[in-house]
Request: fold
Amino acid sequence: MALLVLKFGGTSVGTIERIEAVADKVAGFRAAGDDIVVVLSAMSGETNRLTDLAQQIMDYPTPREMDVLLSTGEQVTIALLSMALEKRGVPARSFTGNQVQIRTCETHTKARIREIDGTRISAQLQQGNVVVVAGFQGVDEHGNITTLGRGGSDTTAVALAAALDADECQIYTDVKGVYTTDPRVVEDAKLLDSITFEEMLELASLGAKVLQIRAVEFAGKYKVPLRVLSSFEEGAGTLISLEGESKMEDPTIAGIAFQRDEAKLTVAGIPDIPGIAYQVIGPVSAAGIEVDVIVQNAAADGNNDITFTVKRSDSERAKKILDDLSPSLKAESVSLDKKIGKVSVVGVGMKSHAGIASKMFKALADENINIQIITTSEIKISIVIDEKYLELAVRALHSAFDLGDPDYERESIT
Amino acid sequence: MALLVLKFGGTSVGTIERIEAVADKVAGFRAAGDDIVVVLSAMSGETNRLTDLAQQIMDYPTPREMDVLLSTGEQVTIALLSMALEKRGVPARSFTGNQVQIRTCETHTKARIREIDGTRISAQLQQGNVVVVAGFQGVDEHGNITTLGRGGSDTTAVALAAALDADECQIYTDVKGVYTTDPRVVEDAKLLDSITFEEMLELASLGAKVLQIRAVEFAGKYKVPLRVLSSFEEGAGTLISLEGESKMEDPTIAGIAFQRDEAKLTVAGIPDIPGIAYQVIGPVSAAGIEVDVIVQNAAADGNNDITFTVKRSDSERAKKILDDLSPSLKAESVSLDKKIGKVSVVGVGMKSHAGIASKMFKALADENINIQIITTSEIKISIVIDEKYLELAVRALHSAFDLGDPDYERESIT
Reply:
C-alpha cells in the first residue's frame, strides 16, 4: 500500500466528463489499496474568465483581492471531484489551501510555500478518505489567501508529497512524459523512462515546458519521487529521480532542449576593467528584462565584448538602454540580432564523460551550422545559432547522440 | 460617525456595472465618515451555474462538497467589489466566512450561525478599511465550510451587525422597502417608513418576501436596527425596529399579506379524543410536508373536524396519507380543496385595539366573500377563502383599514 499524491491540471478537469474520468482513475488507485491525495487546478478557462472580470474593473487589480478571486477556481474543482468520487462509493473530502494550512509568504499572486502541516490530511487518510486539495493556493501568517503563481498547482502537489512523505508524486498532464526533445521537431523523439532532477531542471528552464521549474526544484530539495504522465493516455510516463536512483544505464545525454524567440545583444569594444559586466547587465536587469545567456570574452589587447540574450519581445527595449549607456561605457558599438535560437544538450552523465562538446560541435559542423555563442554548465552545453538552423541542429544532435526511439517506425522513408 | 453593515443581494452585484454602482454607494458612505462593513451574495445566476455543474455529477450532491462549491460564488463578488473600492481610492479588504470566523453548526447547506468573533473586522475598520464579507457562508468547529441556505446572506449581515454592535444593518434589494401589501395587487399600496420586527415576521412568513425570516428573527433577538431599501432607486426604505422605537403614530394595521398556492385538507367526523390532532398531523409532517394553518372545531355531539392547509404541490401526497389513515382514525371523510387562498391582516397595534376582527369580517361580507377558516394570533388575523376572491379581498381590506398611500394618484378613475 502506497501513499500517492496525484496532481491533475486544468485540461484534465476542464469538463464534467473529464472530472468523471479523473474520478475513475482515482477510484482505481483506491481499489488497489493506495492512500490518495489529489491536487487540482481550476477548470481550464476559469482563471481567464475570473481575470477578465477583474480587468473589467481595473487594469492592475489589487493583488490581495486577485488571490481571493482566483483561488475560487480550484475550490470549484475540488468540490466537483469529491462529489464524483462519492458517487463511485469512494469517500472523499475536499480542502482549500487555507483549510490544510498551506502556509506561504505574503507575496500575493506569486507566494512561496513556507510550510505545510500534514496532520489534518493524515487524519483524513487514516479515516479512509481520499483527500482532494486545491492547488495553487495557500494562506499567509495573517490568514490572507495567497496564490502561488503560474504552475503553482505542481508546487502544491510536490510540497504536499514532501510534507506527507509520500511514496510518489504523479503529475498528470496532456503529454505522455518527458521526451528526449520536442516530438514536433524530431519525429523519433523518445519518451524517457526516467530523468534526474538536475536534467529536468535544465530541460524545463530551456523550454521543455512539462513541469514548473519550482516544482522540480522543490521535489529535488525534498527528495520527492516525481512522475510526469498523461491524463488521457495509458503509460507509466517519466520518473524524475535522484541521480543514484536513475534506472537508466549510464545515460550520457538525456535530451536536447531548444528555445526560439530569443535575441542577442552585443556591446563591443568596452574596456576590460573590473565591474564592466555589471555596468552593462545591471541597467538591463533593473528595467525588469530577464537576461538568459551571458558571455564575455576579453581579448589580449585589453578590448572586450559582452554578449547576452534576452526574450525577443524585450530586445528593442534592451537595445535602447544600451545605446543610452554606450557613451559612458566608452563602447565601440551596440548591436542587436533578433534572429537567433538556442539549443542545449543536457545530461547528468556529461559530468563524467569527456568528448560531449566535441561530438556536439562536430555534428553541427557536419551540417555547416555556425555557432555564435557557446556556454556550458555541469550538465549542459548550450549554443546560440542563426534561428533558421534551429530545427536542423536539434535533429542533427538528437541523431548524433543516438537519442532516437528504436521502436519508432518511420512512415515513409524516401 | 456611524458603523453600518450594508448587504447587497445577487441582483445588486449581478454585473460588473452593478458592482461599480455598489462601490459608488459605499464610497459615498465612507466620504460621509461612516465605518462600513459590506456583506455580499453571489452574482445572480452564479449559484445556479454551480448547482448545475454539481447536478451533472449527481442528483443529490454531497452536502459538504456542495458548500465548498457554492461558497466560491460570494468569494468572487467580495474580491471584485474590493477591487472596485480600491479603484476609487477607498481601502478595502475582502474576507470569506472562514476568515472572519462566522462559526456555524455542522448542518451543511442550511447551517445556523452560532457565533462571530468581531475582532478581526474591528481591527480592519480601525485601520480605516472597508471590510467586505462573503455572505451565506461560515465554518464549523472542525474547519469545514458551511452555507446558511436560502437568503443566508441577510442572516450574515444581521449577525455581523449584532456582533459588531452596528448602528444599522441595511439590506439592499430590488424593492424600495416593505409595503402595506403587494403593489401589484393594490395599486396604492404604501411604502412603510417603519414596521416592527413582529409585524415583519408575520408579513414575511405570509409571503411578502422582502427579507429572510431568519434574518428578521435574528435582528429582533439581538435588537439590530434593520432597514430594507432599494439598490437601484433612491429612498430611505423601511426601518424594521423594536416596537417602542417605531416612529409610526400608533398604527393599528401594518399591512395585508396573502398567499396563493395553498390547499386545504379536512378530515371530518373523527372522534373528539385526546391525541387525535397528533394522529392526523403527525404522519403528514413526518412525510416532510409543511403544514401551515391548523384549525379544529369540536362539535357538541362529540364529533370533530380537523382542517389544515399545505402547499398546493404537496396536497395530493398529503391526501394519500390521510386516505390511508382514514380507517384507523375512524374518519367519516377526507376532503381536499386546491382552490384556496389565505389573507392576513398584520399589525402589532392589534394587541391593544378591539374591533379589528369585526372590521375585517364586515369588509369581506360587504364583498360577499365567504370565509372558510379563521385563525388568529397576537398580531394577525388570517382567513382562508376561495382563491378566486383573493385579490378582491386584499383590496377590500387594504381600503377598509385605510392603508392606501394618500399621495398616490390614480391614473384613470372611471
